[in-house]
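User: Structure please.
Assistant: Input sequence and predicted structure:
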Amino acid sequence: FTISSAADDLRIGDLISVATGEPVVEVPRPANVPKTSKWQKYCPISKDYRKMSPGDLLDKHEVAYNDFVSVHIKVHQANPNSWTRKLKDYIELLNPGGSFPYYFTQRNERGEVEVGRLLGPDGQQVITVDGPHSAPSEHYNEYGTVMLIGAGIGLTPCSSILSALLKFRWKKNFRPEILHFYWVVRQSDVDGFQWFIRRLTELEHGLKRDREQEQVDRRYYAEINIFVTGAKEKRDVQPMRGGKRLVYSDALTQPSFADEDLYAAMLNPTVSSKEATAILGDPERAESAPNRFQDIFVWNGRPIWSEIFAQVKENRVDRNIGVCFCGAPVIGAALGENCRLYSSEEEDCLFTLHKENF
């Protein structure tokens, strides 16, 4: 579930269309519009404002800040009395149309439409978030180079970190400058993470746009590796659930891939994880790899952590490398062992693990 923030101190998010939830950009004042005339128009990122008439552009009251706290809850469908099932049923009651994703709206004290909803039909607050509480992954900004690893529900803090870096922090020249992100997911669980596949696609498109517009410096580097485990048989690829697929045919910056493409590659990964370090270590092979989607590589099988740590160590530009992990204890133990094995005072290299197990 995604809920809008009720606070006013989060106004750093993207502007979005209230009607569709699509991010928008502000349209520059045309030369034929006098400076004395009021002008504040917006255009969806999937469109080219130069090809649109002024009447088709969005006005200020049609957009809002997409400031939100993203809450991801695994619903236990088998037990109708579980609190997760009851919460799901309650949220669905607030959506009379029954189509998803659905963007709740409300009017503020000025009568303007805002994305998000504070109170339910019973007059009570829809949901209350207690926190945030201290988590190991929050140390990512202490390093110049970070290895970020997520598995299972532990992917959620990784999603927040990726959004913070690719959408905000890198535009402001904040650390870390080098990001290695590793996502370990079972083939049978891929469908449950369609929301994150969409987010990755949007983040990659945004990063490509920011690079082209020179809003992100060249020194910032992202490498995203997705390891799909348990892929024993070929899966039929069905259309992704929920949400309207964005069409960027008129956008100034064309996306390198579509969310459906990444989804299909994850359902049926074709390149073995045993080849990962060999391919990534060869620029020519990496550039033309069939499993590459801009900065993303999709692998079939488990990550070989010893080879990954050795490669990161060999190519390092920073002495201290942060390793932030959220997921199963068995992966955390393997990461801890490799941090010890590949740290060396003589070679001036230190891997520091920050982990949270589920």
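Confidence is low (pLDDT under 50) at residues 1-11.
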